[in-house]
Design a protein that fits this description.
The chain is of the alpha/beta class. It folds into two domains: 2-51, no CATH class; 68-165, no CATH class. It has helices at residues 2-20, 22-37, 68-77, 95-98, 120-124, 135-148; strands at residues 85-88, 103-104, 115-119, 152-157, 161-165. It has a five-stranded mixed sheet. Strand 4 (152-157) and strand 5 (161-165) form a beta hairpin. The longest helix has 19 residues, at 2-20.
């Protein structure tokens, strides 16, 4: 998938960028080939990350849904029913399509279920990065609720989604 994404981006942008700025073309090529050289992550293992003390991109900056099936598998392995899973997801896929029955926390004002999966993009960069305006305050609400309700980290699905458990009210 990453090969197709990189090849498609290069085919669409390459000739125009090369004409306008050869230096920018080389830099763009460097970014595009980084995940091909170092696995599926652009943020943590890419060539660019080695230049910085802290990677400049969260692992889900260019997320297209690769970790939603991993989240579904993780939930299944831990016997977490879809109805007990809320997802605050940054990226180009639909959580409800990949995990039927889960609660898309950016599409609704539903209360948080027992388990909440959050894209690391929101955790590392902030809720303001939600792709649509209605999602920004909802992402902020999810993060605030996780903190105020002392949610505990359960596991990471792939590179870009963290799963938390909210303790039962006392």
């Amino acid at each position: 998938m990453i090969v197709l994404f990189s090849a498609g981006a290069a085919a669409a942008l390459g000739p125009v960028l090369l004409r306008r700025s050869p230096a920018a073309f080389v830099l763009a090529l460097f970014f595009a080939l980084s995940p091909l050289a170092f696995g599926r992550s652009i943020g943590r293992y890419g060539l660019v990350a080695r230049v910085f003390r802290e990677p400049p991109l969260a692992d889900s900056n260019l997320d297209w849904g690769q970790d939603l099936p991993r989240l579904a598998t993780l939930a299944s392995e831990r016997d977490i029913p879809s109805a007990s899973l809320g997802v605050a997801y940054f990226g180009g896929d639909l959580p409800s399509f990949r995990i039927p029955g889960c609660v898309d926390l950016l599409a609704t004002d539903a209360p948080l279920p027992r388990y909440v999966a959050v894209s690391r993009q929101f955790l590392l960069v902030g809720p303001g990065t939600a792709l649509f305006a209605d999602g920004r305050p909802r992402a902020a609400h999810v993060l605030a609720q996780l903190k105020s309700r002392d949610a505990t980290f359960v596991a990471r699905a792939g590179d870009s989604i963290d799963l938390f458990e909210i303790p039962a009210p006392r």
